[in-house]
Design goal:
- By secondary structure, this protein is an alpha/beta fold.
- It has two domains: 79 residues; 196 residues, Rossmann fold, CATH 3.40.50.150.
- It is 37% helix and 15% strand.
- The chain is built from twelve helices and eight strands.
- The strands form two sheets. The chain has a six-stranded mixed sheet with strand order 5-4-3-6-7-8, sandwiched between helices.
- α6 links the parallel β3 and β4.
- The chain binds S-adenosylmethionine.
- The site of S-adenosylmethionine (SAM) has 21 residues, from α6 and α9.
- S-adenosylmethionine binds next to α6 and α9.
């Protein structure tokens, strides 16, 4: 008899043999095996340990085989195989219309931007710019129960997924999907918090990414030749749209060093992230205005 335990072990071995790359929401092949086995059986991710010795339902074998084929032979990331992703404890619909949710900023947002945002204040308007499927903004809507949240992206496909995620979370009363080039559609001084996760992979780095990244939209990953163009534009536009006490969180991953080289006079504060990850700067509206006025952006 096949149990969940034996099935997990077989799937883990298959993933290892296929040398899949984990980096799209799951940290190891063991985590991926759990997600695939539970997904095939139609079970939620949180299960008691006693499930391990239960029989694996024979009728789900073909479903598991199809998932493994997608994962191992076509190198489709698990989130796209299962059409769902989890971020900061929330579930999102995930498919190739948008990047797979995995931003390390989500944990800071879920903690109400502590210690960067005053504990006793609620931001009135938050924008998740370059929102993809909208996960970061929806985590913000969960953390700040009174805020209006704008999910903004240039890509219609990503926005259609973001709209489905707004509906999934029942947030259409105060979360709005908006098509725009970065922050260009927003009024001056109208935004309290900007969450910005633009594409930042340089052209040279694009060529070296593992095949799993081919499943994601290119517009979500590839920036200009060195990867900093959209980040620099966001800093300049942020100086305009943020309210006087506003805050920007800018995520540029490993491109943070290139950004420092490009803007050598800007004293970025790269924060420590509770669950790992790098390249996230926290910047106040005042700093952005000072840098803009000093001509160092
Ligand atoms: C790194 S992905 C962000 C994913 C999302 N923040 C998340 O955590 O899942 C970058 C996003 O920026 C969008 N984008 C690219 N150029 C843009 C532009 N000029 N203005 C607005 N959005 C843009 C892409 O369509 C993509 O959805």
């Amino acid at each position: 008899m096949q149990t969940f335990r034996t099935k997990l072990s077989q799937v883990e071995t298959a993933l290892k043999e296929a040398a899949v790359y984990c980096g799209h929401g799951y940290e190891s092949v063991s985590d991926e095996a759990v997600a695939l086995v539970l997904g095939a059986a139609g079970l939620l991710p949180e299960q008691p340990l006693s499930l391990l010795d239960q029989p694996f339902p024979g009728e789900t074998e073909s479903q598991l085989a199809a998932l493994l084929d997608q994962r191992c032979h076509h190198r489709v990331p698990v989130a796209y195989c299962l059409k769902e992703a989890y971020l900061a404890g929330l579930r999102f619909i995930a498919d190739p219309r948008a990047l797979i949710p995995r931003s390390p900023v989500s944990h800071v947002v879920a903690e109400r931007l502590t210690p960067w945002w005053p504990e006793d204040q609620e931001p009135a308007v938050i924008v998740d710019v370059c929102c993809g499927g909208g996960s970061l903004g929806l985590v913000a809507a969960e953390a700040f129960s009174k805020a209006t949240v704008l999910l903004s992206d240039l890509d219609e496909q990503a926005l259609s997924l973001a709209s489905e995620n707004i509906a999934l979370h029942g947030r259409s009363d105060r979360v709005i999907a908006l098509r725009a080039d970065l922050l260009s559609a927003l009024r001056s001084g109208s935004i309290d918090v900007v969450l910005a996760n633009p594409p930042y992979v340089s052209r040279a780095q694009m060529a070296e990414l593992p095949p799993e990244y081919n499943a994601e939209p290119r517009i979500a990953l590839e920036a200009d030749a060195e990867g900093t163009e959209l980040a620099v534009r966001l800093l300049r536009e942020g100086a305009r749209v943020l309210a006087p006490n506003g805050l920007m969180l800018l995520e540029v991953g490993e491109t943070w060093m290139t950004l420092e080289d490009r803007l050598p006079k800007v004293p970025f504060l790269w924060i420590e992230l509770p669950q790992g990850g790098s390249g996230v700067a926290v910047i106040s509206a005042q700093e952005l205005r000072d840098w803009d006025a000093a001509g160092i952006l």
